[in-house]
C-alpha cells in the first residue's frame, strides 16, 4: 500500500524547521512514523509542489484538482492513488480507515 502526501510550498521537505514550527506538521510527522511502525509494508511519500512538480502530474486526480482549484487545495493525501483528504493533512486515524 502506498500513502502519498502532496504538500504545499514549504521551507523544507518536512516543514518542521525555523523558529515557529506548525504543530500540524509535527503531528503529521508523528503520524507518519506511527504508520511506518504499525504498517511496515506501507510506503509513505511526501511531495512538495515546488520541488517535485512531476509527482503532482503522475496522479491524474491530484493534478486535476490542483489545476482546477489551485495550490490552495493543498495538502492532498492519497492512499493507493485515491484521494482521501484535501485542504488539510489526513490524521493517522483517517489514513488508517483506508488501509
From TrEMBL:
It comes from the Bacteria. Pfam families: ArsD. One of its GO terms (molecular function) is DNA binding. GO terms for biological process: negative regulation of DNA-templated transcription; response to arsenic-containing substance. InterPro entries: Arsenical-R_ArsD (IPR010712). This is Arsenical resistance operon trans-acting repressor ArsD. The lineage of its organism: Bacteria, Bacillati, Bacillota, Clostridia, Peptostreptococcales.
